[in-house]
Write a structure and sequence with these properties.
By secondary structure, this protein is an all-alpha fold. It is 76% helix and 0% strand. The protein contains 17 helices and no strands. It has helices at residues 8-30, 32-42, 50-80, 85-93, 99-109, 115-127, 132-144, 147-157, 159-182, 191-202, 211-244, 249-255, 264-272, 279-291, 296-308, 311-317, 323-347. The protein starts with 7 loop residues before the first helix and ends with a helix.
Length: 348
């Protein structure tokens, strides 16, 4: 039996409120750079200094990630009232092995997120009951296979190199997701995530809610998830911003040369993990390293580790995942990145 629908005037009020909230969200999101610029100027700093660049990154990325998290979680909360968790799982898990991983990894290509920005949608997938391995395929591909990096590689080295990067990046995301899914590590989700999934599954036969109840569900979703995660977001981005302002290009170039020993690739991955930026932010560093004679495969391994295995991302994920699952995720992705680095160095 369906719930009573709200009166037309109440529906109009709900629609007006949602429209106003959406306009404000877009307005704020589109002026994040201006906001960060204004804060830096008010502090008497410029982006040409290490401190100024670090603070600019913090004041830009913090509201960006929080806005993304709030918007995505609200939308997912409303969607949950339309689509049962079982249907969501069926859509992305696929009838054949790996179909869901391929779909999720492909979705990651067209979402221009850095690792921390991809976390909100990752959390949304988990809360919708999407299989763990499938969600990881998205979390890996979203930052790793980036259109900015593809454009750079195409412009510098041609379509073959760009296609090789695309294929290898997708392969890492798909295979890593499959491995994590096969390991059946759902027990290493934080308790509140598993409780949320169980609660939503229990509501499968609930009556059809009204629009007011759908919106309330979205708001409750935001309070429940964002309320738990936001301190970790602040901490993660603060760490990343501090490192972002102090990138040791000369030191990195010295160990990434074309004649560097075999351990240069894993060393580049280890150097990249503590850093944090998106693909657009890492491209100038990549170009500088290549200009100083660094090997392309080693530089790509460094770039992938920065945007797919960042320390700030791990800090944020810690609120959602337990340490064994984070360690497994990092290990599987790091192994895939090493393969990419060695393959590129071997063929170029």
């Amino acid at each position: 039996m369906n719930h009573a629908e709200p009166a037309p005037d109440k529906k109009l009020s709900l629609l007006a409120g949602l429209s106003l909230a959406a306009v404000l969200w877009v307005l704020v999101y589109s002026h994040l750079t201006d906001f960060a610029d204004a804060v830096i100027a008010a502090l008497g700093l410029t982006r040409q200094t290490h401190l100024g660049e670090a603070l600019h990154f913090f004041f830009y990325d913090t509201p960006k990630v929080l806005l993304l998290l709030t918007g995505i979680v609200f939308i997912m909360g409303v969607i949950h009232t339309f689509v049962a968790p079982e249907r969501t799982r069926a859509l992305l898990s696929g009838k054949r092995l790996g179909v869901g991983n391929v779909m999720a990894a492909s979705l990651g290509i067209v979402t221009p997120f850095c690792s921390c920005s991809a976390v909100p949608l990752f959390i949304g997938f988990l809360s919708a009951g999407v299989p763990l391995g499938v969600t990881f395929s998205f979390l890996i591909s979203a930052p790793m296979v980036n259109e900015v990096a593809l454009a750079l590689l195409f412009g510098l080295f041609g379509w073959k190199v760009a296609a090789l990067y695309l294929g290898l990046g997708l392969s890492v995301a798909i295979v890593a997701g499959l491995v994590i899914g096969r390991l059946q590590m759902e027990k290493y989700l934080e308790d509140w995530v598993r409780e949320m999934q169980a609660t939503q599954s229990a509501d499968f036969d609930a009556p059809t809610p009204s629009w007011a109840e759908r919106i309330d569900a979205g708001i409750h979703h935001v309070k429940d998830i964002v309320g738990k995660v936001w301190p970790y977001i602040l901490l993660g981005i603060a760490v990343g911003a501090g490192i972002h302002g102090y990138v040791p290009e000369d030191f990195m170039a010295s160990i990434m040369g074309k004649d560097a020993p075999w351990w240069s690739v894993p060393a580049a991955v280890l150097i990249g993990v503590p850093m944090y930026t998106n693909a657009a932010g890492i491209i100038p560093i990549v170009e500088a390293l290549i200009g100083k004679g660094a090997a392309l495969g080693t530089v790509l391994a460094f770039m992938m580790s920065v945007i797919a295995l960042s320390l700030p991302e791990m800090i944020i994920l810690r609120k959602v995942l337990k340490v064994p699952l984070i360690a497994t995720f990092a290990g599987v992705v790091a192994l895939g990145i090493l393969v990419v680095g060695y393959v590129f160095n071997a063929v170029l």
